TrEMBL record:
<dbReference type="GO" id="GO:0005737">
    <property type="term" value="C:cytoplasm"/>
</dbReference>
<dbReference type="InterPro" id="IPR023214">
    <property type="entry name" value="HAD_sf"/>
</dbReference>
<dbReference type="GO" id="GO:0016791">
    <property type="term" value="F:phosphatase activity"/>
</dbReference>
<dbReference type="Pfam" id="PF13344">
    <property type="entry name" value="Hydrolase_6"/>
</dbReference>
<protein>
    <submittedName>
        <fullName>Predicted sugar phosphatases of the HAD superfamily</fullName>
    </submittedName>
</protein>
<dbReference type="Pfam" id="PF13242">
    <property type="entry name" value="Hydrolase_like"/>
</dbReference>
<dbReference type="InterPro" id="IPR036412">
    <property type="entry name" value="HAD-like_sf"/>
</dbReference>
<dbReference type="InterPro" id="IPR006357">
    <property type="entry name" value="HAD-SF_hydro_IIA"/>
</dbReference>
Length: 266
């Protein structure tokens, strides 16, 4: 039973956009879910591909929506991209497309940024993007400079509807230059999930992944060979689910909270 399986988990790795909240509104059952994980004695880590904000900004956003800071931690594809650059492009100067706060995070994280003579191009979710940035990036990509993207999400869910995310910009640059990124860091690459598992010293058997996107969240969990739950509160609808699949499907994270509570009452 799923209830029995969940009681053995020490690490719940959840997406945020479309899974825990939408825009500035918590989705049904989200707070119950966070509290149920806490009562279970497990850790809740929000692993998001959205690289438009820093972890601190996400923490403030969640607190503003009424989620107690002690209930969760945040890890972003932006942080994972910094780790990747420091490992594979150490001391290389980067041209970064990002929001101002994420740019500051990269600089504080030890990545050298250079808008004029870069050695690697990095594409994050830049909600402050301008045509000049697009023009400059396209020229660099066309020149053959190493090209890194923080994640592949095509759209970012909002209360008004989906808006273009990094995956859409990847398509734009591919149309213009014929090139795709040499490296895409975030989900579905299981390396980002394994970083989180290592940080919390949890095994595959002790970890569960929750998300709303088949091609990022769910694929990441399956590639990492951990138990994976698809929620239907975001991008994926029931008619998009293939007849044969190896993940579990619930309406929302509130459904998981109920399963955890049902176990506690047995």
């Amino acid at each position: 039973m799923e209830e029995e399986m969940l009681k053995c988990k020490r690490l719940f790795v959840s997406d945020m956009d479309g899974t825990f909240y939408l825009g500035n509104t918590l989705l049904p059952g989200s707070l119950d879910f966070a509290m149920a994980v806490h009562r279970l004695g497990a850790r809740l880590v929000f692993l998001t591909n959205n690289s438009s904000r820093t972890p601190e900004e996400y923490i403030r956003k969640l607190e503003k929506m009424g989620v107690d800071r002690k209930l969760f931690q945040v890890y972003t594809s932006g942080e994972a991209t910094i780790s990747f650059l420091k490992r594979d492009f150490a001391k290389k100067k980067a041209f970064l497309l990002s929001t101002p706060s994420v740019r500051e995070m990269f600089e504080k994280g030890g990545v050298m940024l250079d808008d004029f003579d870069p050695e690697v191009l990095v594409l994050a979710f830049d909600t402050s993007i301008t045509y000049e940035k697009i023009r400059r990036a396209a020229l660099l990509i066309r020149q053959g400079i190493p090209y890194v993207a923080s994640h592949p999400d095509i759209n970012c869910p909002t209360e008004e509807g989906p808006i273009p995310d990094v995956g859409s910009l990847i398509s734009l640059f591919e149309t213009s230059t014929g090139r795709r990124p040499d490296h895409i860091i975030g989900k579905p690459d299981p390396a980002i999930l394994k970083m989180v598992m290592e940080d919390f010293d949890c095994s595959q058997e002790e970890t569960v992944v929750i998300g709303d996107r088949l091609y990022t969240d769910i694929e990441c969990g399956l590639k990492a060979e951990v138990d994976t739950f698809l929620v239907l509160s975001g991008e994926t609808t029931r008619d998009m689910i293939p007849d044969r699949h190896s993940y579990k499907v619930v309406e929302n994270v509130g459904s998981l909270a109920k399963k955890i509570r049902d176990h506690d009452t047995v």
